[in-house]
Write a structure and sequence with these properties.
Number of domains: 2
GO cellular component, one term: Golgi apparatus
Structural class: alpha/beta
Distance between the termini: 45 Å
Number of strands: 16
InterPro entries: FAD/NAD-bd_sf, GDP_dissociation_inhibitor, RabGDI
Helix content: 25-40%
Order of helices and strands: EHEEHEEHEEEHHHHHEHEEEEEHHEEH
Shape: globular
Family: Belongs to the Rab GDI family.
CATH topology of the largest domain: Guanine Nucleotide Dissociation Inhibitor, domain 2
Subcellular location: Cytoplasm; Golgi apparatus, trans-Golgi network
Strand content: 15-25%
CATH architecture of the largest domain: 2-Layer Sandwich
Pfam families: GDI
CATH superfamily of the largest domain: Guanine Nucleotide Dissociation Inhibitor, domain 2
Radius of gyration: 21 Å
């Protein structure tokens, strides 16, 4: 009898299955599609992407070889020093994966994009801020880098569990534009709700960004060659279970929302537009990959707009081609119009594929049913919120927190060294 039965349709379930198997669970993967990843799959070849979005014509010859394309339906980058990298190291799935460093991280201001400054030196050189603002931001970054809640000397009378992030910004006299890119492009908050919450989490998020950036220098993000479909495929190889048909009995089931529609509730929607380009994005120094965050206040919204771009350099597109995906949380009855500020940055666009997906969360936490359901993917272009969901499900399944510090199977951390 299996202790855990997992659908292989989403990356959360695959990653969680690997973690559970390392921790002694017998796990059986079930996959209802002919490809890995479900709604978050990497689609190949290119004509399959056209079919999926009901585009009747075939890809033109200008798109290059059909088989050279691996297009993520829901793309996300990995933070180099983040939770997912640690999970991959923990489960040893890194042996099946190759990664490249994303070449740049940018933020939108006044209709243009600028490189995100996250060090004192970058802050002083940045065109995002005036000279006096640069000085204040430099001091803020120095404060964050030194901050240690266990050492009162570093806190400067700040109480980590009580002082809000709004108070911290006021302490350093930072203006709204700086607050926008700090909270949304460094700390990666989805909305401005964090401003009136205790500052500790945001400070830790900014530290994570800086630590991840310092690891490789170009940006804090990594991306797997051949697309994110390699993640669930890597876990399938790791677990080495291949079955055509099986009747299984188990004590627990882990699945994504579509498997248990009576146990979830709808939270909203996400609009995504996949764009095929024949050029890098302007003002990114001709980067072959990058992330752009458009903070909500810059476009009078309640939610950020995200852009992630990868290319032929990652074996996901034909030579000379780029794939950029714009996404945001739907707030109006015209989702396509909501991502237009991002699409304006990408012109000219060879081909667009638009989708609007419902977002679900579990209404049943699994305590009685023993059915543990993941959350739908949000609009962000990084895995940090997804990893929080994985840790939440792990706690519900195992009854204890997943603690990286207690991992016994630590190996020499050589993850991605070839990409330095």
């Amino acid at each position: 009898m299996f202790k855990c039965l997992s659908s292989d349709d989403n990356r959360q379930e695959c990653i969680l299955s690997g973690i559970l198997s390392v921790n002694g669970k017998k796990v059986l993967h079930m996959e209802r599609n002919s490809y890995y990843g479900g709604e978050s799959a990497s689609i190949t070849p290119l004509d399959e992407l056209y079919k999926r979005f009901n585009i009747p014509e075939h890809p033109p010859e200008s798109m290059g070889r059909n088989r050279d394309w691996n297009v993520d339906l829901i793309p996300k980058f990995l933070m180099a020093n983040g939770q997912l990298v640690k999970m991959l190291l923990y489960t040893e799935v890194t042996r099946y994966l190759d990664f490249k460093v994303v070449e740049g991280s940018y933020v939108y201001k006044g209709g243009k994009i600028y490189k995100v400054p996250s060090t004192e030196a970058e802050a002083m050189a940045s065109k995002l801020m005036a000279l006096l603002e640069k000085n204040r931001f430099r001091k803020f970054l120095a404060f964050v880098a030194a901050f240690d809640e266990s050492d009162p000397k570093t806190c400067k009378d700040v109480e980590p569990s009580r002082t809000t992030m709004r108070d911290i910004y006021q302490m350093f006299e930072l203006g709204q534009d700086v607050i926008d890119f700090t909270g949304h492009a460094l700390a990666l908050h989805l909305t401005d709700e964090y401003l009136d919450q205790p500052c500790q989490e945001t400070i830790n998020r900014i530290k994570l960004y800086s630590e991840s950036l310092s690891r490789y220098g170009k940006s804090p993000y990594l991306y797997p060659l051949y697309g994110l479909g390699e993640l669930p495929q890597g876990f399938a190889r790791y677990l080495c279970v291949y079955l055509l048909f099986v009747v299984a009995r188990c004590k627990q089931v882990i699945c994504e929302p579509s498997y248990a529609p009576d146990h979830v509730r709808k939270l909203g929607q996400v609009v995504r537009v996949i764009c095929i380009l024949s050029h890098p994005i302007i003002n990114t120094e001709n980067a072959n990959s990058c992330q752009i965050i458009i903070p909500q206040n810059q476009v009078n919204r309640n939610s950020d707009i995200y852009v992630c771009m990868i290319s032929f350099a990652h074996n996901v597109a034909a030579q000379g081609k780029y794939v950029a995906i714009a996404s945001t949380t739907v707030e109006t009855k015209d989702p396509a119009k909501e991502v237009q500020p991002a699409l304006d940055l990408l012109e000219p666009i060879d081909q667009k594929f638009l989708s609007v997906c419902d977002i679900y969360e579990p209404s049943d936490l699994g305590e009685e049913s023993q059915i543990f359901i993941s959350r739908s993917y949000d609009a962000t272009t990084h895995f940090e919120t997804t990893c929080q969901d994985i840790k939440d499900i792990y706690k519900r399944v195992m009854g204890v927190e997943f603690d990286f510090e207690e991992v016994k199977r630590k190996k020499n951390d050589t993850f991605g060294e070839e990409d330095k």
